[in-house]
Amino acid sequence: MAVEKKLDGLRSLSVGEVARRSGVAVSTLHFYESKGLIASTRSAGNQRRYPALVLRSIAIIKVAQRTGIPLEEIKSALGRYPPNSKLSAAQWREMSSAWRDSLNARIRTLEALRDSLDDCIGCGCLSLEDCPLRNPGDALGKEGSGPRILEGPGIN
User: What global pTM score does this model have?
Assistant: First the structure.
């Protein structure tokens, strides 16, 4: 197995082992690294090596992505701490509470969208003068008759 011991005693994992243990593809690890979400070092043979603590960072990234938090927000939150560090319970509470307002706003928006769908007939606003989703207050009616959204600039 491609596990090395560093001088400081922390385990170092190959990119393949991190992928296997975290459940994400190697290409995803490379992507996360290119975005500055995780960091690796290079072995004497120029192979990527990650500290075992990177698995915690990847778990946080996956949970945050699942809730719809954009990668830039995740990067900003993780950037408050040293790369691949072990977050304390207090640090996790701080990070998660910073996301709470954004998530609550997103939940309110989704609930409003869900509740508005009952009045939508899925027509692209061809029949409704007042569509709460795409044409609130019939703003498009001021531009003329017909399917204004579908007949927008550059649409044939």
Answer: 0.66
